[in-house]
Amino acid sequence: MTTRLVLIICGVILLVFAADHFFLHLDFPVRAARRLGQAIEYIAFWR
């Protein structure tokens, strides 16, 4: 019973870490594109 509980807790923690990692990777291209867009606007503005 206790080992099963520990396994369940470890599984939940792993799932949370995996989901966090996955969403970070999903968010990264969006943020990079936004930053690139801002940089392009900035360069175009100062020309």
Please specify the SSE layout and strand pairing.
Layout: H1 2-46
Average per-residue pLDDT, rounded, comes to 84
Assign an overall shape.
rod-shaped
What string gives the helices and strands in order? H
Report on the biggest sheet. Answer: none
Distance between the termini: 69 Å
Kindly state the number of beta strands: 0
Describe what you observe in this structure:
- This protein has 47 residues and is mostly helical.
- It has a domain of 30 residues.
- 96% of the residues lie in helices and 0% in strands.
- It is built from one helix and no strands.
- The chain is rod-shaped.
- The termini are far apart.
- The model has no long low-confidence stretch (mean pLDDT 84).
